[in-house]
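Task 17 of the worksheet. Students: predict the tertiary structure of the chain below and write it out as structure tokens. Keep your answer in the requested format; marks are given for formatting as well as content.
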Amino acid sequence: MNEPQKNPTAEGATGKKPMASTLMKLWSSFQVVLWAVVPVIVLMVMIILVIREIHQDTIEVAPIQVPTSLADTGLTPAVVALRLLDQIAAAERVVTSERVVRPNVELVGQKPDFNVPIAGISLRTLADIARNLIGIAPRRVSGEIILNDDKLKLRLRLAGHGQIADIGGFALNQVDELLAAGAPEVWRFVFPKLYAWHLAQTLGVETEVRERLTRLLLLDGLDADAERTVRALIGRSFLRSGRGQEAYAIFEVLVANNPNDGGFIYGRGRAQFLLGRLDAAMEDYARARRLDPGAFWIHTGIAQVIRARGDYAKALEEIDKGLTLRSDDPTAMTEKGEIMLRLGRSQDALKLVQDALVYDPYSPAAHLLLGRLRLAQYDGKAALEAMTEATRRAPTSMDAHLGLAEAFLSIGRTAEAEASLNMALSLGPVPTRLEGQVVRMRSAFKEIGDPAN
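Model answer:
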């Protein structure tokens, strides 16, 4: 009897059907899960992003209203808002390019973000809607440009603060200059520490710096951290003016309240140096170094003390250590120039001080050194120009007024030299480091028969 023959093809097809059916069921289940879960995940991600955006410190720059004559030239309210945004960012860049001390350390991660609202739906728009729903007031800069007697005036307002700027006197073609003048006033209210650094670096006259910073201390809502920064910058201004006693009074209090802040201790050391307390200055520098081993500027303070003690070779070695760490530090360049002058290398000193003035054109110490170098080169006219600039930058600097007296004397303008000497002596007691210079000048007046009082 013949056995029925098996069909292998049919058997294979029968075996594959359950597998295909299983795969189809799995795919169908995966699609159901995909369409159910993915929208939930996307929604959760969006909610997280919106919440994150809500909590970001963001300030909107609203369109700035402009006169029709400006709008007709393309300077529409939206364009002017963007330009104001550029100037706000530029004011920040000026501060964070500081080469002298610590703003990059102090300001990192604390600044609010600025933006100009865009039309349509965006993450920021959703965040704004959510803020309104939960009652968080928006932070917004608004304002207008006014044309009055062919002069432009800018008024700016910040939500929650009212009017924050009222600046005028600019020509029709000076819109960017007008916005540049107004932009820092925004920082005054949203981030006073940055505004304080801006004043310290851009005003250029130390008496004005101290006046404006003192006014900033009266600002409502100034927190303790910002107040410390403002007071330290006032102390820094006194240091730049050679006013050791005033600087010491400020940094002594800051150190007492912040004993582990190396920057404040270094500032006190600088004041000690100006007062002739060399050992105390070195003690402060050593303590500041222990607290902040990477502070390149401490080498400058140490070099100044060593120079004052007369060891110019060792002082040069010390200042070069600082310049190795930060070759573009103008304070260190100026100190190296002082050392070079005493070593008789006036050309090297001149190159250093010229470079220092590129980085810090407002430095009274650099202008004063330039004047001394010109005197050493018997160029009385150039010396007078440099010393005049030093006194302009630091009107209360005894060093600068004594230098100006020397410059006047070098070109035979005795009466003006005497007036400058008397001005210097009127600024207070003569510190030990300047006593020799005063004696020499008085002797010079006696030799020409025109003694100073």
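Marker's comment: Residues 53-57, 118-123 have pLDDT under 50 and may be disordered. Residues 74 and 305 are 59 Å apart (CA to CA).
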